[in-house]
Write a structure and sequence with these properties.
The complex is a heterodimer of chains A (82) and B (400). Chain A has 82 residues and is α+β, with helices and mostly antiparallel strands. Chain A has one domain: TusA-like domain (Translation Initiation Factor IF3). Helix content of chain A is 28%, strand content 28%. Chain A has a four-stranded mixed sheet, covered by helices on one side. In chain A, strand 1, helix 1 and strand 2 form a beta-alpha-beta unit. Chain B is α/β, with parallel strands linked by helices and 400 residues long. Chain B folds into two domains: 139 residues, Aspartate Aminotransferase, domain 1, CATH 3.90.1150; 238 residues, Type I PLP-dependent aspartate aminotransferase-like (Major domain) (Aspartate Aminotransferase, domain 2), CATH 3.40.640.10. In chain B, 41% of the residues lie in helices and 13% in strands. In chain B, the strands form three sheets. In chain B, strands 2-8-7-6-5-3-4 form a seven-stranded mixed sheet, with helices on both faces. A three-stranded antiparallel sheet of chain B has the order 9-10-12. Chain B has a two-stranded parallel ribbon with strand order 1-11. In chain B, helix 2 packs parallel to helix 8. The longest helix of chain B is centred in the middle third of the chain and has 39 residues. Chain B starts with a strand and ends in a 13-residue tail after the last helix. The relative contact order of chain B is 0.16. The C terminus of chain B is likely disordered. Classes of the chains: A alpha+beta (82), B alpha/beta (400). At the A-B interface, helix 1 of A face loops of B.
């Protein structure tokens, strides 16, 4: 897993407290409304997202940039590639 | 015999257009809204339309509405769901002492999980004092829940003022609007609340369906973990006919509200005036002005509210003692205790809640039947016999 620090995202999606499969459905919907090259920050406290989201990005042709962590939740960063 | 149903806080009759709107969703359009084929996606679209109607009733956006099974579930999801999502921020909740049991017991449940709960006292009218709320807030406070209007005494709380205290301090504010939504104007932006509960059964919708409004950014730990329903905030296949009924009832309520409020206020005032003129030995509970327009609540000295309700029902008048849970447990209503009604007087509680289906004739019928029934019950009451004749001349103790 690649860790990133202080990455500025264009949009944020708060999925804290929401479990599988919301962490795979909502990023897809949000990315549809974003421009190519923009970065989406996904906030989640669901451990499964750490493996699911990078894998999902690979399948969907989106770029998984990396993740950050604070005491509240994980932050996963996706760049819209297509 | 005339039939006068005046217990609309407990349940309202489901309105005909609501039933008509619901019926196709039992048989013709029965599909699961999560299904990917058209039978599902069409129903999902219908559900989104209902979300818009419910949002319209309270000045919210459709994406801020979660459908639930009841006002009680909405209250549970608000209190427990919001607090559990803020576990790292703090461990203190504040609720008023006159909240519905679904809020009070949610706070008590959190106490079992080692949270601290403050049960905020109210004044003689049931009003929460903003200064008292301020004094009860700690750095660990994560949520405050104060009801918009009380179902037992009708008092409307100063929600906007209380919510702004919490907003300034980053504390989540929830209001239980089950008694108020559809009966008075409710606007989430004017009230400035983060969470608001409502129930379809309060305004001509079916039982078993409610909704919770959440302000954008308010996290909620689901109480029912499941699939993708309600965007992962509440699992379980949706009660589609119920939600359609809620939407239709919300649409009608929003359209008819100003007219309804004026009409039921007139009826309520006629009832209250009549009781003051004809009867003695009672307390008019709740706030004299800041109260629900169709709500009149009294405590008659030296009688049992249960007996009064039963005898009224024998002549076709349907009312309530206020709190079904408390009365069934033979317990004095916590709301009446909180506003300082003496325990023996609190036993004689009766609540009339009106809607647009009630008439002046029904009010006059109640005014004809109620005094002799109260007199009859008092004749049998040793408490009343001890009081008379000394106190009967000046026992009309009204808060108004």
């Amino acid at each position: 897993m690649k860790f990133v620090k202080d990455l500025k995202a264009d949009e944020r999606l708060d999925l804290v407290c929401r479990m599988c499969p919301m962490h795979l459905l909502e990023p897809g919907d949000r990315l549809k409304c974003m421009k190519k090259g923009q970065v989406l920050e996904v906030l989640t406290d669901y451990d499964g997202a750490l493996s699911d989201i990078p894998e999902w990005c690979k399948k969907c042709g989106q770029e998984f940039i990396g993740m950050d962590e604070d005491e509240d939740c994980y932050r996963l960063y996706i760049r819209k590639a297509k | 015999m005339l039939k006068a149903y005046m217990d609309h806080a407990a349940a309202t009759p489901v309105r005909k257009p609501v039933i008509e709107a619901m019926l196709p969703y039992f048989e013709e359009y029965f599909g699961n809204p999560s299904a990917v084929y058209d039978m599902g996606s069409k129903i999902k679209h219908v559900m989104d339309e209902q979300r818009e109607k419910v949002a319209g009733l309270i000045g919210a956006n459709p994406e801020q509405i979660v459908f639930t099974s009841s006002g009680a579930e909405s209250n549970n999801l608000a209190v427990k769901g919001a607090v559990l999502s803020k576990k790292k921020k703090g461990n203190h909740v504040i609720v008023s002492a006159i909240e519905h049991h679904s809020v009070l017991n949610s706070a008590r449940f959190l106490e079992r999980l080692d949270y601290e709960a403050t049960f905020l006292p109210v004044d003689q009218y049931g009003m929460v004092d903003p200064q008292r709320l301020l004094d009860s807030i700690y750095p660990e406070t994560v949520l405050v829940s104060i009801m918009h209007a009380n179902n037992e005494i009708g008092t409307i709380e100063p929600i906007a003022e209380l919510a702004s205290i919490c907003r300034e301090r980053g504390i989540i504010f929830h209001t239980d609007a089950v008694a108020s939504a559809g009966n008075i104007s409710v606007d989430v932006n004017e009230l400035d609340v983060d969470l608001l509960s409502l129930s379809a059964a309060s305004f001509g919708g079916p039982k078993g369906v409610g909704a919770l409004y959440f302000r954008k950014g308010t996290r909620l730990m689901p109480l029912i973990h499941g699939g993708i329903q309600e965007h992962g905030r509440r699992g379980g296949t949706e009660n589609v006919p119920g939600i359609v009924g809620l939407g239709k009832a919300a649409e009608l309520a929003a359209r008819e509200l100003p007219q309804k409020m004026g009409y039921v206020r007139e009826l309520r005032d006629r009832l209250v005036k009549g009781i003051h003129e004809k009867m003695e030995g009672f307390v008019y509970t709740g706030h004299p002005e800041n109260r629900l327009p169709g709500h009149a609540s009294f405590c008659f000295e030296a009688i049992e509210g249960e007996s009064l309700i039963f005898m009224l029902s024998q002549v076709g008048v349907y009312s309530n003692t206020g709190s079904a849970c408390a009365s069934k447990a033979l317990k004095t209503s916590p709301v009446l205790v909180a506003i300082g009604v003496p325990a023996d007087t609190a036993q004689g509680s009766v609540v009339f809640t009106l809607d647009q289906s009630n008439t002046k004739e029904e009010i006059d019928y109640v005014l004809e039947k109620l005094p002799p029934i109260v007199d009859r019950l008092r004749m049998m009451s040793p408490v009343w016999r001890r009081k008379t004749p000394v106190q009967t001349e000046a026992t009309c103790v009204s808060h108004a």
